[in-house]
Amino acid sequence: MNLIIRSDASVEIGTGHIMRCLALAQALQEQGGQAVFVLANKSSALENRLLLEGMQVVYLSVESGSTEDAKQTIDFTLTFNAQWVVVDGYQFGSEYQKTIKNSGVNLLFIDDYGHAETYSADLVLNQNISAQPEWYQYRSPHTQLLLGERYTLLRKEFTTWRGYQKHITDNVENILITLGGSDPNNVTGRILEALQLVKIPSLHLTVVIGGSNPHHKSLEYLAHKCIHSIRLLKNVADMSQLIADADLAIAAGGSTNWELALLGLPSLILTLAENQSAIAQTLHEKGIVISLGHAEEVKQEDFLYQFESLCYDRQKREKMSQAGQTLIDGKGCDRILVKLQEAPLRLRPVSDQDCKLIWHWSNEPTTRKASFQTALISWDDHTQWFQQKLQDLDCYFWIAMNEQDQPIGQVRLEAISPQVAQISISIDTKYRRNGLGTHLLTLGVQTFLSQTQFLSISAWIKSDNLASCQMFEKVDFIKIGSEYRGGELAVHYQFSRREAWECITL
Fold it and tell me: Measured in whole angstroms, how far is the alpha carbon of residue 379 from the centre of its chain?
């Protein structure tokens, strides 16, 4: 699947829209798809970042958010054979959506506070914890809403930390300060000046600014004269590690809040824009952050009181950390891609915790009957086999999850030669006879061939298992012969990379 992503970044609007779209593009890329970013404003730093991520970048020649913008975006959609257009930015309103939809293109519209008068996109995504369906009451009958933190857009540098448990220390030493990609009012500078008055020993400040920040020189001066140790970093590529290393964050409201929550970093939040207020307040009420309110209205003495109080309150920081990691699971992009692909499933790698689940599935009577060895599998034999599969680099093993995040089956591919792999799938009995087997087989094939260089996939199915034979044939596996395996007559099916490529790109 190909996506056109229409968004912008500048000193005034920051880089948050682009960065969260990049998260979706990365998730698509991991499944073998491609995203093309369509931008109105040239930025060498931003363009280089996107190119390094393997994205394509093109530019408009018209006013951002205009009808001509929508028409050029449609032209790019046809040029790059994209199946969806993703639009993210407050300059895009009702007419922009209508123009895109009137061309027959699928549209995902990313929103934060219901800024458009009406909505005609196929999908409207608002990842914020404060999102309300009432904001989108004036929408087309076909428009679906994806609301709340279940759909949080997190870049792959963060999703690799899923399951990480933050250790909260007694003493706060490492402070992360990040006020977005531009910070035009230099709130960062005000924070550094205030922290000059803090007498907590051994404070180390890491200050992260974006390429659009116009105050680099003045911040360098403040860092040089500060009584605390300061690192001033620009355009960082390892933000997740910086968050993991920190004991406390001072941050702006917005997408950064989800990154901090995923990694369990206690945070003081300053609101830089009105659309951040409801998010910061809701996170504050849930005990995930301390919201200080609008940055321009926060008095220095109030900021210092909240900062020092949190530094000395380990129990509160621990509760904030746990609440954040409970809220954000890092699977938002996966859920969105399921919607874009119109498929009811997503795949996740098998883990140690799945051992008993796989054992139960393997010993289910109809599964044993369909196997070439029909005897029940003992727990000891299964655990030994399972650990071998987890450690085998030539074994690709996934659990299929439905839209309710319930495990419904497994798919496993193993190398049987340098160019050929063998596939095995099974569905939990509760989810059979509704077409999920075909979806799982298709998704397993596409995912495997997008991540490897194998030329073909083979499957052997008992000749009397007509339902499985029909399913494999529906996914364009070709019958190449029959043979005996384990004393049973088996049909040999094969799927070549050429068919897979056509299946993925059509």
Answer: 35
User: Residue 223: phi, psi to the nearest 5?
Assistant: -65, -35
Global confidence as pTM: 0.68
Render 311-348 in DSSP notation, one character per residue. HT-HHHHHHHHHHHHHH--S-HHHHHHHHHTT-S-EEE
277 burial (CB, 10 Å; 0-12 / 13-18 / 19+) is middle
What is the distance of C-alpha 254 from the center of its chain?
16
Which element (helix H / strand E) includes 204?
strand 204-209
By mean pLDDT, which of 38-52, 97-111, 486-500 is the weakest?
486-500
pLDDT value for 506: 24
In tens, the pLDDT along 243-294 reads 999 999 999 998 899 999 999 999 999 999 888 898 999 999 999 999 999 9
Residue 100 contacts residue 87 (beta carbons within 8 Å): yes
Can you read off the two tokens belonging to residue 360? 């139960």
Q: Would the pLDDT of 303 be above 90?
A: yes
Nearest to 349 by CA among 394, 399, 276, 313: 399
- Cα–Cα distance measured from residue 506 to residue 475, given in angstroms and rounded to the nearest whole number: 14
- In angstroms, rounded to a whole number, what is the distance separating the alpha carbons of residues 29 and 17? 18
